[in-house]
Task: inverse folding
């Protein structure tokens, strides 16, 4: 499903080059729930961004569903992300100026979906995360856990095959964290969605199928 | 999609009152000034009561006589009008109006200054005066040399103390008494063809109208059917130059004249006061006006660009998320421009209200006598056009900057 | 410190370019408007050269064009006017009189130099009617009509243009064919007949010949208390004496008001628009600074933590703005200063002196600095007041 071969990422400033990722090779199967762990600054988020086609690797190749993206334009990339990948961020990144349902509809906005269809899909997604009663609220009126559940609803509303989650429980206490984790697990089981999750939390990581550890930009086993 | 943009635009407005005030202040005042200016220009250049056919009325002006050393020019003499211009075949209607003269009228010890003009009967067919009572003089009045007058409502009020029931009353100007046969609504003072307090048949003139001369105080008016027709009239009228016989003792050997609409003459006076009239002045004038408006918009636009650009960071998270979920850079740029246009339109509505208030105040102040500055359809349409222009100009730069932001840094920053 | 501020600006040059442009154009607008206003103000304050108070201007038009008949009627009118106690003084004149719309010009040559002065035809009483200020020589008198070379009184502008430092009293001027035409008998200061806002022009006065075949105009200096009643009485009498002449009377003080308005209204409109633009820019600067400082809260916290004082920080932010402003002003002054250096519009018909440009540049710089200082002071102070811990926490 996701295949990374010999990925390197170098950040260059005027004076120094920092190697953020070093020779990463990964093969993630369809339906797998993979977690990535490692200390701060080891390159976890960078790896996730590269998988999500948000960032380019310096060298190496990313393949998703057998496609490689070296020649993709901004437009093609945007379309591919929209159809195939859903994102969840540590700090939720909800748009504060939009209501919960409008936030969830966002990915559908960039597809040709009628507004009634959007509304329907978005409410279904919110039901799945148990927030059907909060549709008209604004993000500022929600707790952290609720915000993250909205973010999950937003990630799944377009029925992507892959969900990339960057520390989804990082800002939450353990009760809320577990709620969020349960939703992700259920999603993986019932809908066969491939999930890659970056986490700091060993107990969360243990619940996933596979654990990848990064240290200083390299894979350790 | 659009509803979504509007929601976000309104939310952005509500988020920071100070910025909203600064943006809307700049936008609304800029647009108000431009709408006021265009309401003025619409009156001066396009049409104002009572010459609503302004674009179809051709006038003969700049009648000049010259020899090698000297040149003198003014309007037409009555001789020229009667013997040559009146005989033109192409125009639909041919009429004449004189330059005005200031007259003093005394009511007891009170002095009243009037602006008096002479015209023929056709003048009232070319102009669309609103008659409050009575009617205009006709050919019969002129043939019978009758001392009759058409006066304005404000003169009626000043002289008789009432706007109604003045038909048949005498009005004494210097040594002559005229009978009022019509009262019209006042034309605005900037309407150079129709502004007058009192209109008299040309037959009452103290001048010797039959005198053989070329230049004089009369402005012949030629009504055209349409644009094509105007060209034909111009050609025929210009050919007069070669047919006119000069008086035997004349010092001049040549004559010239210009034919054009009032607007064309105005444009010539502003753009090309000394040179010869050609057909390009009006376009030049429009270009200058448009250029000046753009220049005027430059600073407020820059200001808005700077304000909007400064606030990109506030929206980094939104940009990052939208991109991650499939928005392309161009979709985003489009969104931000649309947002800006929406904000501009809100400012435009405020600007329109402001402009309306200012124009009404100017009308009420009577600073420009009998001026009327309605925001009619063309001014309104122009205002909408300006909103678009302003919104796009001030929105594109920040929108491009926003949409170019890389996703990773956008997400990280928030 | 200055170097440090410079570095801060340089590192954000992308962001500052907008500010730079905004200040640049504000300066250009301000410069143009202040040049125009200083120019007009300067002209306004030049000596007008005559007194317009209580003057009525009577324009006359006759149907006949017989010089002899006209002269007779004029004499008759003059005799009548002399008897009126309401009239202090009066003079027949040509039609190109103060605040009117007529002009008459001619060509004068002297020693190969040529100029186009206005020329005014008047009567000896004209000096008293308008209270003109004679500087040298004498005014015109009745027996000048018999003189061979026509005696004229020139104004100081004509003296400057055509004769410079020459002694011109009793100087004779020749026409194209080399015959003596005029003789200068006196010099007046000015006669700005087009009004306060028109630049001083060369001009000269001569007596009105009796042989004119049109009546021209009449200037009447009347007693301050004479009103419409007297006007009505006089007009009635005039119409009786000259049945087929037409008369048109206007009060010079009113003509002056409407003439002044022609320049004052554009000045007021320009100042309003300029004021609005500057206010807009000021609010904009204020807003931009505010958001800049909000973005830099962490920086503020660190600086405070490292020992910067509130005052020091305040001045640093103001300093940054002032430096951007200075860059912009240097750039725009470079463009503006080309006008005085190249003497643009310094010749006819505008005669904008170099000092006007320099004063306008100075005034514009002062105003821009003032606006920037005010707009940067408040946001900067607010930023400096931030508690370091709060500032750092925000990141």
Result:
């Amino acid at each position: 499903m996701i295949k990374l071969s010999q990925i390197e990422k170098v950040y260059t400033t005027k004076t120094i080059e920092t190697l953020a990722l070093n020779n990463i090779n990964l093969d993630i199967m369809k339906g797998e729930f993979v977690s990535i762990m490692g200390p701060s600054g080891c390159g976890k988020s960078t790896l996730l961004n590269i998988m999500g086609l948000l960032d380019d690797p310096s060298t190496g190749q990313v393949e998703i569903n057998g496609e490689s993206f070296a020649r993709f334009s901004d437009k093609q990339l945007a379309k591919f992300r929209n159809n195939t990948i859903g994102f969840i961020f540590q700090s939720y990144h909800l748009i504060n100026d939009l209501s919960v349902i409008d936030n969830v509809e966002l990915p559908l906005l960039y597809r040709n979906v009628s507004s009634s269809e959007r509304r329907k899909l978005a409410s279904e997604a919110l039901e799945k995360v148990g927030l059907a009663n909060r549709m008209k609220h604004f993000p500022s009126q929600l707790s952290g856990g609720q915000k993250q559940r909205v973010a999950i609803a937003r990630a799944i509303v377009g029925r992507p095959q892959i969900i990339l989650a960057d520390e989804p429980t990082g800002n939450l206490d353990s009760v809320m964290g577990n709620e969020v984790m349960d939703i992700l697990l259920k999603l993986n089981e019932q809908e066969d969605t491939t999930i890659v999750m970056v986490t700091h939390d060993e107990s969360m990581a243990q619940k996933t199928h596979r654990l990848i550890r990064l240290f200083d930009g390299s894979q350790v086993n | 999609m659009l509803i979504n943009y509007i929601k976000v635009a309104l939310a952005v407005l509500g988020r920071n009152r100070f910025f909203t005030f600064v943006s809307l202040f700049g936008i609304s005042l800029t647009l108000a000034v431009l709408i006021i200016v265009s309401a003025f220009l619409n009156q001066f250049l396009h049409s104002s009561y009572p010459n609503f056919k302004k674009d179809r009325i051709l006038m003969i002006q700049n009648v000049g006589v010259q020899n090698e050393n000297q040149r003198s020019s003014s309007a037409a003499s009555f001789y020229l009008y009667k013997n040559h211009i009146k005989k033109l075949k192409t125009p639909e209607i041919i009429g004449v109006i004189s330059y005005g003269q200031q007259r003093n009228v005394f009511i007891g010890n009170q002095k009243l200054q009037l602006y008096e003009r002479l015209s023929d009967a056709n003048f009232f067919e070319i102009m669309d005066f609103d008659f409050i009572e009575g009617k205009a003089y006709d050919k019969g009045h002129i043939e019978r040399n009758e001392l009759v007058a058409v006066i304005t409502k404000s003169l009626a009020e000043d002289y008789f103390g009432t706007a109604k029931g003045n038909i048949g009353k005498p009005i004494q100007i210097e040594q002559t008494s005229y009978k009022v046969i019509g009262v019209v609504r006042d034309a605005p003072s900037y309407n150079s063809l129709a502004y007058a307090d009192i209109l008299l048949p040309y037959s009452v003139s103290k001048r010797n109208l039959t005198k053989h001369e070329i230049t004089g105080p009369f402005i012949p008016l030629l009504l055209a059917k349409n644009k094509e027709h105007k060209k034909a009239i111009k050609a025929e009228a210009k050919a007069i130059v070669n047919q006119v016989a000069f008086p035997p003792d004349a010092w001049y050997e040549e004559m010239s004249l210009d034919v054009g609409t009032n607007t064309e003459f105005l444009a010539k006076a502003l753009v090309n006061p000394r040179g010869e009239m050609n057909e390009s002045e009006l376009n030049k004038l429009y270009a200058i006006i448009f250029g000046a408006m753009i220049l005027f918009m430059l600073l407020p636009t820059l200001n808005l660009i700077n304000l909007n650009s400064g606030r990109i960071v506030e929206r980094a998270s939104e940009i990052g998320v939208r991109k991650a979920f499939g928005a392309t850079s161009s979709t985003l740029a489009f969104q931000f421009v649309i947002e800006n246009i929406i904000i501009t339109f809100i400012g435009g509505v405020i600007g329109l209200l402001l402009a309306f208030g200012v124009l009404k105040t100017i009308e009420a102040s009577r600073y420009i006598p009998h001026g009327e500055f309605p925001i009619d359809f063309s001014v309104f349409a122009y205002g909408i056009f300006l909103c678009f222009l302003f919104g796009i100009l001030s929105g594109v730069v920040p929108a491009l900057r926003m949409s170019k932001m890389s996703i990773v840094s956008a997400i990280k920053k928030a | 410190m200055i170097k440090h501020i410079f570095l801060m600006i340089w590192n954000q040059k992308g962001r500052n370019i907008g500010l730079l442009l905004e200040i640049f154009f504000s300066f250009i607008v301000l410069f143009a408007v202040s040049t125009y206003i200083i120019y007009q103000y300067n002209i306004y304050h030049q000596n007008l050269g005559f007194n317009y108070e209580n003057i009525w201007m009577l324009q006359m038009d006759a149907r006949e064009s017989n010089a002899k008949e006209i002269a007779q009627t004029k004499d008759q009118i003059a005799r009548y006017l002399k008897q009126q106690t309401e009239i202090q003084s009066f003079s027949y004149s040509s039609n190109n009189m103060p605040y009117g719309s007529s002009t008459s010009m001619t060509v004068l040559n002297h020693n190969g130099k040529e100029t186009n002065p206005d020329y005014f035809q008047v009567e000896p009483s004209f000096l008293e009617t308008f209270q003109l200020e004679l500087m040298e020589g004498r005014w015109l008198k009745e027996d000048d009509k018999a003189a061979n070379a026509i005696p004229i009184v020139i104004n100081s502008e004509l003296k400057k243009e055509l004769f410079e430092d020459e002694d011109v009293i009793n100087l004779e001027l020749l026409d194209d064919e080399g015959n003596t035409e005029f003789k200068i008998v006196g010099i007046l200061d000015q006669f700005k007949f087009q009004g306060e806002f028109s630049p001083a022009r060369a001009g000269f006065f001569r007596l009105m010949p009796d042989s004119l075949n049109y009546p021209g105009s009449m200037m009447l200096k009347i007693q301050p208390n004479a009103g419409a009643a007297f006007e009505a009485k006089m007009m009635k009498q005039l119409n009786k004496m000259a049945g087929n002449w037409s008369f048109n009377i206007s009060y010079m003080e009113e003509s002056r008001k409407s003439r002044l308005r022609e320049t004052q209204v554009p000045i007021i409109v320009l100042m309003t628009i300029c004021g609005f633009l500057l206010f807009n820019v000021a609010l904009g600067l204020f807003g931009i600074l505010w958001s800049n400082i909000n973005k830099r809260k962490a920086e503020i916290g660190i600086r405070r933590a490292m020992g910067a004082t509130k005052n020091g920080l305040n001045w640093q932010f103001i300093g940054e703005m002032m430096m951007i402003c200075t860059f912009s002003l240097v750039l725009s002054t470079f463009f503006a200063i080309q006008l005085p250096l190249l003497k643009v519009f310094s010749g006819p018909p505008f005669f904008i002196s170099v000092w006007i440009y320099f004063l306008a540049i100075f005034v514009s710089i002062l105003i821009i600095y003032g606006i920037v200082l005010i707009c940067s002071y408040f946001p900067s102070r607010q930023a400096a007041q931030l508690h370091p811990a709060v500032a750092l926490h925000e990141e």
The two ends of chain A are 21 Å apart (CA to CA).
